[in-house]
Design goal:
mainly alpha, 5 helices, 0% strand, elongated, 75% helix
Length: 166
């Protein structure tokens, strides 16, 4: 079988050569590269504050503020990630190479949004809000792992000779 054309992905590869070039050229790649570790740092701080509140009953407002900030950054990374996918793959979400990452992202955003609605509309007790945040954070960790594995795969592919799946 011959080398893939510019518009076809080689079997087992994430990107066509054209998509890889767009990925490397777009500023959205840098934005994602900044926002992802920032979001993770915010997550770690927020997780500590939420666990502290659940363990001691202290620090509700700090935990709440941290979850709201984490959610805002999550929304921002989702919007910029959709813009990145549009540039690289030609569609805002659910590009085949990132379908499952996007699907789990929807669940993560759904739980974070449930927390925000529960907070703003007083639908939940503080303990229920914090438990919802923990559930959202568990899914976030799974989603972050998905993206880290995909990043690792892309780096391996970038360093592998063409025609040989990484």
């Amino acid at each position: 079988m011959g080398a893939a054309t510019q518009n076809q992905r080689e079997p087992g590869r994430l990107y066509t050569p054209e998509q890889r070039a767009r990925r490397d050229a777009t500023s959205w790649t840098l934005v994602q590269g900044i926002l992802a570790p920032l979001q993770f740092l915010i997550f770690l701080i927020s997780l500590a504050l939420v666990v502290r509140y659940l363990a001691t009953g202290e620090g509700y407002h700090a935990a709440t503020l941290s979850i709201v900030i984490k959610t805002a950054v999550l929304y921002l990374i989702m919007v910029t990630g959709a813009l990145w996918e549009k540039v690289v793959f030609g569609q805002y979400l659910l590009a085949p190479a990132f379908f499952w990452e996007d699907m789990v992202s929807f669940l993560v955003i759904g739980l974070h949004s449930l927390y925000i609605f529960g907070l703003l509309l007083s639908w939940m007790t503080p303990a229920a809000l914090m438990t919802t945040a923990l559930a959202a954070y568990l899914l976030y960790v799974i989603n972050a792992a998905q993206f880290l594995l995909k990043l690792r795969r892309a780096r391996l592919e970038d360093s592998a000779p063409s025609g040989i799946p990484a």
